[in-house]
């Protein structure tokens, strides 16, 4: 791949889901940035993407098709914020030594999270990018589908009206049927997706749907437990 030396060498925070894919699509159209690494947070014991529960081998197949190597942020099963921050800072220092100057995220409207990312990257002398920040999530969701992306609901919050969609395709039918409590892009954590095809990929990622199961996690606000329903996606 012939990368222009005038472009900023950029890391993309990658979950394998919809917002990551849209962010990469935007950066491909921007002549200022060159995405040359995917940063993936994984549970080291389960070998799955943190929160999304997607198997690493599916993420690696995405990366292979995109032609972009992965740097993993290997986390324990229930990492503290101190653990996460320490590992992230170490990885950012390592990536800076490789010449990276920017890290891009697919955040849309969570202001606290944006400030958190900016503050922590500033500590190590890197720049944060938010290519889809502030955009209308309904328009983003529809354009994602109109552009030919294909995604599946990998993880959903069980107590929300989206819970029955786990393992189903992210579609306009879903957008038409969803209730007002659900953000069209799942920006409040209502659901997470795995993208298996679309304009940024030269071929689709073959996958099969496995077991569906529920798991409990502590609420980030300290208000008891949250229950998420996962569809175990398998490569092939």
From TrEMBL:
Keyword Hydrolase attached: yes
Any Pfam family matching the protein: Diphthami_syn_2
Keywords from the UniProt entry: Hydrolase
InterPro entries: Diphthami_syn_dom, Rossmann-like_a/b/a_fold
Residue intervals of the Diphthamide synthase domain: 9-206
Superkingdom in the source lineage: Bacteria
An example Gene Ontology molecular-function term: hydrolase activity
Protein name (Swiss-Prot/TrEMBL): Adenine nucleotide alpha hydrolase
Lineage: Bacteria, Pseudomonadati, Balneolota, Balneolia, Balneolales
